[in-house]
């Protein structure tokens, strides 16, 4: 907004390098009474720029963006993530065969893991459904807070 007000001010009185502006400045600044007049004109121009300079952007700008939905802070994300991690840990400890499978994936190339994981989930739909249910709070958070 400051740039807009300054641009409007220089359009109204001329740029500082404009010969007419320099001449008027020298004329107004020649004596004490002229300084008062120049100060008054300057103050008036600045006041007008401040008053009217923001009108265009105010009409063009729809306003502040919508505030984020409640419970979408970094702390909320950490809390949801911690809950999902704790539930996943509990699930893996209570399902040793699933825990063993995920542990066996360690150290393999990412592309191989993706394919193997898809095959495992297709072969074990109950495990897939359980893990999706555990992750659901994180999915809900992401959908709500995007």
Automatic annotation (TrEMBL):
InterPro entries: MHB, MHB_sf
Limits of the Haemophore haem-binding domain: 70-146
Domain of life the protein comes from: Bacteria
Record GO terms (molecular function): heme binding
Coiled-coil residues: none
NCBIfam families named in the record: MTB_hemophore
Protein name: Haemophore haem-binding domain-containing protein
Organism, as annotated: Mycobacterium kansasii ATCC 12478
